[in-house]
Amino acid sequence: xxxxxxxxxxxxxxxxxxxxxxxxxxxxxxxxxxxxxxxxxxxxxxxxxxxxxxxxxxxxxxxxxxxxxxxxxxxxxxxxxxxxxxxxxxxxxxxxxxxxxxxxxxxxxxxxxxxxxxxxxxxxxxxxxxxxxxxxxxxxxxxxxxxxxxxxxxxxxxxxxxxxxxxxxxxxxxxxxxxxxxxxxxxxxxxxxxxxxxxxxxxxxxxxxxxxxxxxxxxxxxxxxxxxxxxx
Length: 232
Description:
The protein is 31% helix and 21% strand. With 232 residues, it is an alpha/beta fold. The chain has 2 domains: 1-22 and 70-111 and 160-232, Rossmann fold (3-Layer(aba) Sandwich); 24-67 and 112-152, SIR2/SIRT2 'Small Domain' (2-Layer Sandwich), CATH 3.30.1600.10. The strands form 3 sheets. Strands 5-4-1-9-10-11 form a 6-stranded parallel β-sheet, sandwiched between helices.
């Protein structure tokens, strides 16, 4: 695809691009981990009921993410950012750091990130790559001494930085959506906003998303197969 000097590209990525690096898509795999539904380990209620189980779940996800490597889809988006600079914005629903490790810099994690933690009381936010797998190992805030939770947006919580996301979306000339189901809002609604503003919309994924009707162009194929040629 040819990119003009006026183009501003808003990219939304979902679990599909990380799945190509071997990371589980929990909705796609029955939503189970160690006999528990994801909702039992990824909600505020789950945290209040059993923080040890929640931290074991996210410690497992940290370990898996550390072992995974960026794929050609991640690298293609990083190359497009290198070309467009501040006219490129990447909003991801993923909580891994594969985009950053591929070289992307203008990345916003709307659902939080595995490698940050925060205090439940004072909100102290810090980089964290530790594993917490027993009750005795659960972290405490270095500022106020209260419990520390994963910096993850759980079911029932509001995604992070929505005002900034909409600011970038409104300025875009192209919206490129990669590897999402089209079922999780508010992200699934970004394409409809783009349509209202007559922004060109492209979807890349192995199957059509639930909101396929809203896209100008659907490119069937994985991110690894499609993105290097599409953004090159």
